[in-house]
């Protein structure tokens, strides 16, 4: 299921260009247009879910697939050995600007704690 007004749904459908780095059965991964680290890839489900909580409630196994594919991106990008961060922003107050579930894979530099 897709939302015709959703930017990420349009990327999945090939209507909006993106630098795709991986395509899984249930996910698509592409480079963030405003990278916050040398490696900054978004991993999104092919189906539309507004956030992680919605996906967990309505699509069993989707978050597992998303995290598994995010790790495959980290391996392909060469940041799995040095460490990477996987971030899900949920809601505008947490910085979510596109309301289609997406995981940020960040790596390639030291990542401070706490984030933000």
Summarize the structure.
The chain is an alpha+beta fold.
Sequence-ordered SSE layout with sheet pairings:
Elements: H1 7-12, E1 20-23, E2 27-31, E3 39-45, H2 52-58, H3 62-77, E4 84-87, E5 103-107
Antiparallel strand pairs: 1-2, 2-3, 3-5, 4-5
Could you describe the 3D structure shown?
Helices cover 25% and strands 22% of the residues. Strands 1-2-3-5-4 form a five-stranded antiparallel beta sheet, covered by helices on one side. It has three helices and five strands; from the N terminus they run αβββααββ. A hairpin with a 3-residue loop joins strand 1 and strand 2. It has a single domain, classed as HIT-like (HIT family, subunit A). With 116 residues, the protein is α+β, with helices and mostly antiparallel strands. The model has no long low-confidence stretch (mean pLDDT 95).
The CATH top-level class label: Alpha Beta
As for the number of domains, it is 1
The strands making up the biggest β-sheet line up spatially as 1-2-3-5-4
Instruction: Count up the helices.
Output: 3
Question: Which class of secondary structure composition applies to the elements?
Answer: alpha+beta
- Please report the distance between the alpha carbons of the first and last residues: 33 Å
In terms of DSSP E residues, the strand content is 15-25%
């Amino acid at each position: 299921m897709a939302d015709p007004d959703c930017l990420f749904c349009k990327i999945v459908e090939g209507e909006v260009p993106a630098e795709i780095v991986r395509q899984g059965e249930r996910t698509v991964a592409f480079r963030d247009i405003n990278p916050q680290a040398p490696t900054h890839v978004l991993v999104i489900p092919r189906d539309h879910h507004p956030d992680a909580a919605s996906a967990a409630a309505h699509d069993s196994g989707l978050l597992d697939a998303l995290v598994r594919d995010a790790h495959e991106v980290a391996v392909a990008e060469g940041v799995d050995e040095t460490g990477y961060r996987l971030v899900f922003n949920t809601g505008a107050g947490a910085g979510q600007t596109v309301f289609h579930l997406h995981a940020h894979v960040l790596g390639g530099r030291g990542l401070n704690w706490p984030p933000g």
